[in-house]
Design goal:
Radius of gyration: 20 Å
Strand order of the largest sheet: 2-1-5
Number of strands: 7
Number of helices: 7
Largest sheet: 3 strands, antiparallel
Oligomer: single chain
Helix content: 25-40%
Strand content: 5-15%
Structural class: alpha+beta
């Protein structure tokens, strides 16, 4: 929230419109998982025969990109329901995505007829370490990578850190983990699903499991990147 508030102030100072959109992924997951098809989150999987895999990731597209696209179409450009896209809006708008250079494999063309995707941090080859240093040195803001608390790409260290410093959020995280334990998705799967890449329930993670923080060097210090 601190980072969002900082961006809000910076936009106001620059005269740029700022909007924060609701993305109720947690709510939809808790209400619908096991009852009807839900968005595909990249849960770690484990079958009884020991086979390990990972679910596809559609959450970024469905709960970030698509919600921004719809907001721009309906609220910014003023389209009405059923109205066809005007020629002047076809591939006429840029959507800038903040993937760092480590995530360059995620850079893809937009399937939306309105947008051209841009990846400025990848174009400048800026890693998470580079971005952290710039934001702290120039803006004075100590940042961490942004992601859902139940994102399976977090390391176990993140979950342990959340347990220690944000117990209410950790309690919600356990609810998601228990949901994956107790219910089978629609359509059904023959694998168990896990938030942790260790393929353990979060409550069963040991201190040894949680010594996996991703760090980078900044002025001779090891800085945790937030994952």
């Amino acid at each position: 929230m601190q980072q969002a508030e900082f961006v809000h102030r910076a936009c106001d100072a620059a005269g740029i419109r700022y909007e924060m959109l609701d993305a109720p992924l947690h709510r939809d997951l808790m209400q619908n998982f096991g009852r009807r098809r839900t968005v595909s989150i990249p849960w770690w999987t484990l079958r009884d025969d020991g086979h390990k895999s990972r679910m596809p990731r559609n959450c970024t597209l469905d709960y970030k990109v698509e919600r921004i696209s719809k907001f721009v179409r309906w609220e910014v450009l003023g389209y009405k329901k059923g109205q066809r896209l005007r020629d002047e809006d076809k591939k006429a708008h840029e959507m800038h995505m903040g993937f760092s250079f480590e995530e360059k494999q995620r850079c893809k063309d937009s399937p939306n007829p309105m947008f051209v995707n841009r990846f400025p941090l990848v174009d400048m080859e800026l890693t998470r370490a580079d971005n952290y240093a710039y934001i702290l040195d120039v803006w004075g803001l100590d940042t961490k990578a942004s992601a859902c608390c139940f994102c399976p790409f977090h390391r176990n260290y993140f979950f342990e850190n959340l347990k220690e410093h944000q117990p209410q959020t950790y309690a919600k995280l356990l609810e998601v983990d228990e949901l994956l334990r107790d219910k089978n998705p629609k359509p059904p799967m023959d694998s168990d699903l896990f938030i942790s890449r260790s393929r353990k329930r979060l409550a069963d993670l040991t201190p040894e499991d949680c010594c996996d923080a991703e760090c980078f060097e900044y002025h001779g210090k090891q800085i945790w990147n937030g994952f």
